[in-house]
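Example (one chain per record):
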Amino acid sequence: MMRSMDVRETEIDLRDAGDGEDDEGQQTWKTQLETVLEEEEEEDVISTQSDTRPLINERDPRQINDCLKVSFEDVIAEPVSVRSGDRIWIWSHALFEVSRVWFYRIITAVLAVPVSLLAGILFAILSFAHIWFFTPCVQVVLINTGWLQTLWSSVLDIIILPFFQSVAKCCSGISVVLTRE
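Predicted structure:
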C-alpha cells in the first residue's frame, strides 16, 4: 500500500527533563519520519480500539435492526371514513412516542447489562467450541477422507459422466412440434 509522505514537521525535544533550560535555549529537530511513525501508531491504536470500544453515535452500523424502525404512523392509522378528534390524535401520537422511548430506556437500564453479559458468555462458548472442537474435527475428517474424494471424482468421471452424455446425445435428436388443431 502506497503511503503519501506528509510534509508536516515535528519538533523533538532532546533535552533532559531536569535540564532547567528555558525554551529559548532548546534545540529543535524536524523530521518527516517521526511524523509518519506517529501516524502509523495512531492508526494502530484506532484499529485495535475500534473493535472493543462501543460506537456512541452509530449504534447500528450494519443496519441489523432495520425492522424496528417503527413510528406512530406504522402502527396506528385512521382511514378517511372514520376519524377521531384532532386533539385525541395528537395526544395519542405523543403518548405513543413518549411511552415507546421511556419504556425502552427503563427496560434497557434494568436488563441491558445482564443480557449483554449472557450474550457475551454465549458467544465466548460458541467461539471456543468452534475454534477448539468443530474446526479440528472437520479437518480430521477431511484429511482422512481425501482418498474418498479422489475415488468419488473418479467414479463420476468414468461411469456417471459418460452415461449421461450418451443419454443427452440420444435425446438431442428428439424434437417436439406443437400444433393447434
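Caption: Confidence is low (pLDDT under 50) at residues 25-30.
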